């Protein structure tokens, strides 16, 4: 005897049981919502995080539990457009039961009924606050390392020195400029020395960074001297056709310091030992 075909109602009950088991299996917040971005179901973690009962969450707008409801609604609609999204952040912040703002990422996918029709979407909402703090800490440490690798030293009253060692990329060049300008202001220096003896390659970007730094220093009333210029560096800077009118170039640091003292009308007098 042939088995009786399941009724639509039974299929829906089975689908509901299946989705419930999936939802509660997630250690993160999980919700299902429909095309109108209304919540259809949630797991216990969602209840605990929001402080709202499951009964009240079901049927409420998905967007109302975020600091930026419009962005949250756009994220929900994006799931139906793409049918699957992974690690979607969009600056999403959940409002937890204490009123705190929790940065979250969204992983979501649509699900279908027995006929293959999309009936809703699963969404895992993951707290990424620890990950963001870790990233911020790494960035802070990188910034400190950059600052230590580009010190601005006061070598004489009115003279600051930045010894450059290693590759100069855009980020480090920005750090050099910031450190130098802050030091010029704090020491009221009139001359800035950039020593490039430790820079392995003089290319277009490095030369441009030096010119821009010199221009910024000039706006604060300081003249710039580039020291440690090798013959190959001199040729490169000349061929680039950059405006070097604000730069004074010297082959060695000692020559640069003497030039700086001359600019300040100062002289180093040898002691006779008395």
> What class, by secondary structure content?
alpha/beta
Average pLDDT taken over every residue: 84
Task: Report helical residue fraction.
Answer: 40-55%
Strand content: 15-25%
Order of helices and strands: HEEHHHEEEEHEEHEHEHEH
Which segments are poorly predicted (pLDDT under 50) over 5 or more consecutive residues?
A: none
Q: Given the structure, what is the number of helices?
A: 9
The Rg value, from CA coordinates, equals 32 Å
Cα distance, first to last residue? Answer: 123 Å
Number of domains: 2
Strands, count: 11
CATH architecture of the largest domain: 2-Layer Sandwich
Characterize the main sheet. Answer: 6 strands, antiparallel
Q: What is the overall shape? A: elongated
The CATH superfamily of the largest domain appears as STAS domain
CATH topology name of the largest domain, in short, is: Transcription Regulator spoIIAA
- CATH uppermost class of the largest domain: Alpha Beta
Describe the protein's architecture and organization.
The structure is a single chain. The chain is α/β, with parallel strands linked by helices and 274 residues long. It has 2 domains: 11-127, Beta-Lactamase, CATH 3.30.450; 139-263, Transcription Regulator spoIIAA, CATH 3.30.750.24. It has helices spanning 8-25, 44-50, 54-57, 69-82, 129-149, 170-187, 204-219, 231-239, 253-263, and strands at residues 29-33, 39-42, 84-88, 93-95, 101-112, 118-127, 153-156, 159-165, 191-198, 223-227, 247-249. α7 (204-219) links the parallel β9 and β10 (223-227). α6 (170-187) packs parallel to α7 (204-219). The longest helix is centred in the middle third of the chain and has 21 residues, at 129-149. The N and C termini lie far apart (123 Å).
């Amino acid at each position: 005897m042939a088995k009786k075909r399941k009724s639509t109602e039974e299929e829906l009950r089975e689908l509901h049981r299946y989705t419930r088991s999936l939802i509660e299996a997630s250690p993160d917040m999980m919700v299902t919502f429909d095309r109108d971005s209304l919540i259809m179901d949630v797991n216990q973690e969602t209840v605990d995080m929001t402080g709202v009962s499951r009964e009240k969450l079901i049927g409420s707008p998905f967007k109302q539990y975020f600091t930026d409801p419009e962005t949250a609604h756009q994220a929900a609609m994006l799931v139906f457009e793409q049918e699957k999204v992974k690690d979607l952040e969009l600056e999403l912040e959940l409002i937890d039961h204490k009123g705190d703002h929790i940065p979250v990422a969204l992983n979501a996918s649509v699900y279908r009924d027995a006929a293959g029709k999309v009936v809703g979407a699963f969404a895992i909402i993951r707290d990424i606050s620890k990950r963001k703090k870790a990233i911020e800490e790494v960035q802070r440490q990188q910034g400190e390392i950059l600052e230590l690798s580009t010190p601005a030293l006061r070598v004489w009253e009115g003279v600051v020195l930045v010894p450059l060692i290693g590759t100069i990329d855009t980020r480090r060049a920005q750090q050099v400029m910031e450190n130098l300008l802050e030091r010029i202001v704090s020491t009221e220096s009139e001359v800035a020395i950039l020593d490039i003896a430790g820079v392995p390659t003089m290319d277009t970007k490095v030369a441009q960074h030096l010119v821009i730094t010199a221009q910024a220093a000039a706006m604060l009333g300081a003249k710039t001297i580039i020291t440690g210029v090798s013959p190959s560096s001199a040729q490169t800077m000349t061929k680039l056709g950059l405006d070097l009118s604000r730069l004074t170039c010297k082959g060695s640091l000692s020559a640069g310091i003497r030039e700086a003292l001359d600019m300040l009308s100062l002289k180093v007098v040898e002691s006779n030992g008395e």
